[in-house]
Here is the input.
Amino acid sequence: MVEETIARLYAEQEMRCPTHLCIGQEAIPVGVSAHLTATDLVFSGHRSHGHYLAKGGDLRAMVAELYGRETGCARGKGGSQHLVDLACGFMGSAPILASTVSVGVGAAWGARMAGEDRVVVVYFGDAATEEGAFHEAMNFAAVRRLPVVFVCENNLYSVHSPLAIRQPPRPISALGGAHGVAAACGDGNDVEAVHALASGAVARARRGDGPTLLEFATYRLMEHCGPNGDLELGYRSAEEIAAWQARDPVAVYRNRLAADGALDAAAQERAAAETAREIDDAVAFAKASPFPAPDQLARFVYPETGR
Amino acid sequence: MTRQLRYFEALREAQAQILASDPRSYLIGLGAPGPTGIFGTTAGLQQRFGAERVLDMPASENGMTGVALGTALMGRRPIVIHIRVDFAVLAMEPLVNQVAKWHYMYGGKMTAPLTVRMIIGRGWGQGPQHSQSLQAWFAHVPGLKVVMPTTAHDAKGMLIAAVEDDAPVILFEHRWLYNVSGPVPEEMYRVPLDQAATRRRGRDVTLAGTSYMTLECLRAADLLARIGIDADVIDLRTLTPIDVPALTESVGRTGHLVVADTGHVQFGAGAEVCAAVAERAFAALKAPPRRIGLPHVPAPTTPALADLYYPRAREIARAALDSLGSAAALPPEPDDPRRWKDVPDPSFNGPY
Here is the structure.
């Protein structure tokens, strides 16, 4: 619902930053974050709204960030591609593929150096596993048996380039074995399946048994970047999109809960209304917030604390 | 007399004192704990501080720079070492996109206090991929601090200041400075990361150098002194910022500027220095500023070509004469029995 609102309001041209929606991929961060505490840390890439919100990131600060306001989580300097909320352990997101994977591994190592018990989750897409930096980070996490869960959201496309022309026909999770990292793959559109796989990986990290690579099959229903669909580009078929639309993780789980009698129509309505109120509040907050003052342009290039 | 240390010994002492005084600090680099200890700069440190404070690493310059950044976000103070600048090119993505911007792009919420040591190779056939001097690349990126200590004193004081600084700092160390001795206090001290130093006072021409080229500027000043020309020599020490007030003060007195940098002339640090001075003190300049540095050519390996490749004191002195419009002849070269000039002094021998 958050991203549907973003998509609707994007046309107003007031959210002036590249925005990568995760509609269709929501189950993965929800299923993973359920196992994390506030002191556990998360790093992400460009498609990070779901990761941020599932970890407990502040919705007002996120929307204000998209609107470029001073009250944004990065004071307007990051935008959608650089979300951060230290209070909940969301350490940052960045759009250079695999760039935050090594930073997350380092955070896990740094926490261990400080004697802190934290699990670090790093989210990235299928194409990030083609970057050398990804393998370098996996290698070091394995050497040091660091408490990291590598979560690959395999949505089959890097922008418009299909997986099959970029990688050989083997599961991405097979890369784990090459690095001595435990690995598994599962259905990323089934939140319970994600939850079950993540449970083992997070527990493993927490008890000091080292990193795990989880690959989740999923699908981006919207265009790579922006508020619309992209069927007209012709790089994927209407049939393919429709097949994944039928497996939309939110709808699938809603229907399952309803069928199980765990969610009646009234509860659904209440939840939707409450979420809509939160979203309205965040948008209103963002729109009412000031833009950064001109004197903020050169602020934070270098720390003001000095030494 | 103040105690004398060689440059590499000053770096080692700085790191030992940092490791001893700041439990957050650690040192990591390919071969850092190895038997030769990064040209002696890390020798013995692992034995003294343990394998969790002085670390070797996988040959993953990119990944390990990101890892070091991650530890810095969690409160550590890493010193990352690249035994040649050329290897750090593999770490450009994390340095330029992540380390440099982490503080800014998250609105000041975190800092990235990394120190990265990069050694500029030269001589004995270091060639195209073991002798690059790429400080201008890093100085071009907002968020990074780039310093180039010339003396043993500054090597120690700037390294300590770099580790204590909350910003990421890159320390360029020229291999030909490693055996040069100078006075180094035993206690921990800091040299500011934003100030040049005047190494010689003169009134006729300003010679400004980076790193090892400061020594060539001093030799050029000696040559010029023998023909009655009195040079001011400035050791730039830092590129971020360039100490423009120190330069304009000097040029205000001399009216002439020659900049000698260890890197390529084209788009190099010397161009930035000349532009900064011209913008702020154009009226003081009596002639166009001159740049001395490497030609737009990769470093050749054979000494027959490398000896032509690197400019020396005579080129700097000639540029000064040119700026002054002087037709005076430089004193003749002293007899040099060496066939090749690809080592700084007899204390260096290959392979190194």
